[in-house]
Structure formats: C-alpha cells, structure tokens
C-alpha cells in the first residue's frame, strides 16, 4: 500500500443529475472545476443514486397497481402495497419480512432492504410519486465511466457505491454494487502472515472497503457529494466486477 497513506478528494458543487445526463462528462467537468487531475491508480467512487438518476431508473408509485401477493406482504411489513410491488419486481426472492423492513435478494444478487429502492433525495418533475431503482447493470455503468475518464492513464478504478445495513451490525456503511478496473475481492489465501503462517481463508472485500471509505465524505443526508476520488492505494487491476463479492446462498449463514 504505497507509503501507508491515502488521500480522499470530494468533488464540491457537483450539479444535480437529471435523467439522460452523461455522468462521465459531468464528472470530468467537475474534476476540472475542482482543479483535480486524475492520476494513474486513482479510484473514482460514485454514489449509486446519481448513476440511477442519469440512467433514468425511476418509477412512479402512482402508476403501480399492487398484486394480491404484494398486498399480503405489505400487511406483514406495514408498508405501501405499491412499494412492495416495486420491490418484488426488482427481486429474485424475499428473504425476511418484519414490520418496517423487507429484506430481499435483488435481481443483481445483492441481499439488502427494499431491493435498493429509495425515495430520499429523489425528485422527478414528470412523476407524482417518484421512486428510484438501482442501475440496470452497475458493473457496465462503471466500465463506461472508467473508459471515458481513463484517457492515457495506465490504470483507473471506478466503484459505484450504495449505503446498506448489515445482518450483524447496526448502522449503514458504503458497499460496492459495481466496479471496473480493480479487483473487487482480493484473495490472500496462500500468503504468509507476520509470523510465517500460511493464510487459509483470508479474502479482502477491497471494493467494499473503498466504498466505505468514500462514504465518510459522501454522507447519508443532504451533503450532495456523490463523487469522491481515492488516491494512494496499490491494487491489482481486474475486470471481474462485483460478482466475486456475492456469497453463494448455500454458504450464507443468515439465509
């Protein structure tokens, strides 16, 4: 890890993103406005919400008619049946339901609340009750942005981050839902520890750690800081995406 220090740069005054915006172009313009020049080995961390907005991943609750299944689940969860219908449409399976919380495996394979659907900091002039879904393919979104920003740089990482809760801890933290140009999961098995013992199970959720570090600057409320640059980490380059971070259901002790 370089000189054992890293730097994080938040891009100030980032514009409000609208459907159809070219997010890579907006980031490039914001880098220039903030007098930040990307360097080889930088990692650009982008909040999921602005990716979803640019890709027009909106639905209007007012246009959703809940099914009988959604109404039954809504009664258990004490939630709007229309929201439950939207969650089901974005999910592979329902994992847990208690009043106020619906945990699902989303169509992306992520296990989290409400399939990542959000209403906070969401507006859409053409919709009565807008909600925002996750991007269709966050890895692909990360690749497109990386390819635009990388230019002549030897390497550049991009991570798309969302905030999630965890089964065994209180509070939310940043989590990678898409990435490009870096290994999402770094396998240390076979390497030695400080005393020469061979590591047998150690794998590092590198993309998640990057997302979590950036979320300290992004915040969770009205900060309006959707893009953070992380500099100073050595990392293996890869095009594997975040799939390697998803634990197989047969090995998931919480399901």
CATH-level-2 architecture of the largest domain: 2-Layer Sandwich
User: CATH homologous superfamily of the largest domain?
Assistant: CofE-like
| Content of β-strand | 15-25%
Placed side by side, the strands forming the largest sheet appear as 1-12-2-8-9
Q: Average pLDDT across residues?
A: 91
Strands, count: 12
CATH topology of the largest domain: 60s Ribosomal Protein L30, Chain: A
| Residues in helix, % | 10-25%
Unreliable stretches (pLDDT < 50, length at least 5) are none
Write structural notes for this entry.
With 255 residues, the chain is an alpha+beta fold. The chain folds into two domains: 7-51 and 135-243, 60s Ribosomal Protein L30, Chain: A (2-Layer Sandwich); 59-131, CofE-like fold, CATH 3.90.1660. The protein contains six helices and twelve strands. The strands form four sheets. Strands 1-12-2-8-9 form a five-stranded mixed beta sheet. Strand 4 and strand 5 form a beta hairpin. Helix 1 crosses helix 5 (138-150) and helix 3 (68-77) packs across helix 4 (81-89). The protein is globular. The protein starts with 6 loop residues before the first strand and ends in a 24-residue tail after the last strand. The model has no long low-confidence stretch (mean pLDDT 91).
């Amino acid at each position: 890890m370089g000189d054992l220090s890293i730097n994080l740069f938040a891009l100030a005054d980032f514009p409000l993103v609208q459907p159809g915006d070219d997010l890579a172009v907006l980031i490039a313009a914001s880098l220039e406005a903030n007098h930040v020049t990307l360097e080889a080995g930088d990692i650009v961390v982008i909040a999921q919400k602005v990716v979803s907005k640019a890709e027009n991943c909106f639905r209007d609750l007012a246009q959703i008619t809940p099914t009988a299944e959604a109404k039954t689940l809504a009664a258990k969860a004490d939630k709007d049946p229309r929201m439950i219908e939207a969650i089901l449409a974005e999910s592979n399976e329902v994992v847990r339901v208690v009043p106020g919380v619906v945990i699902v495996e989303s169509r992306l394979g992520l296990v989290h609340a409400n399939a990542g659907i959000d209403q906070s900091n969401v507006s859409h002039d053409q919709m009565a009750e807008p909600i925002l879904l996750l991007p269709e393919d966050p890895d692909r979104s990360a690749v497109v942005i990386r390819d635009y920003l990388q230019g002549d740089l030897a390497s550049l990482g991009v991570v798309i981050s969302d905030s999630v809760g965890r089964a065994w801890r209180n509070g939310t933290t940043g989590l990678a839902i898409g990435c490009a140009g870096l290994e999402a999961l770094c396998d240390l098995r076979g390497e030695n520890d400080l005393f020469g013992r061979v590591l047998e199970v150690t794998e590092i959720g590198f993309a998640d750690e990057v997302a979590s570090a950036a979320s300290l600057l992004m915040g969770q409320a009205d900060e309006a800081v959707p893009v953070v640059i992380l500099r100073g980490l050595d990392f293996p380059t890869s095009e594997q995406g975040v799939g390697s971070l998803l634990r197989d259901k047969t090995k998931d002790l919480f399901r």
